[in-house]
Amino acid sequence: MGKKIRTDWPEITSRDWQFDIPWLIFSLLMLLALYLGHACGWLIILKRFNHPVPFLPGLYVWCKSLLARYIPGNVMMVVGRVVMIEPYGVPKRVSLTSVAYEQALLLTSAATVIAVALPFLPKLQNYSQWIWLVLVVPPLAVIFLHPVMLNKVGNYLLRKVKREEIEEFLPFGDILGIYLFYCFFWIVAGLGLFAMAQTVTYVTWSNFPIFVASTPLAWLTSVLFFISPSGLGVREGVYAFTLDFAFPDSSGEPSLAIASAFAILFRFWQTLVEIVAVTVVMALVKIRHIKIRAATAEEMKDDEDIHGKDNPTI
Question: Does the predicted model carry a pTM greater than 0.85?
Answer without folding.
Answer: no
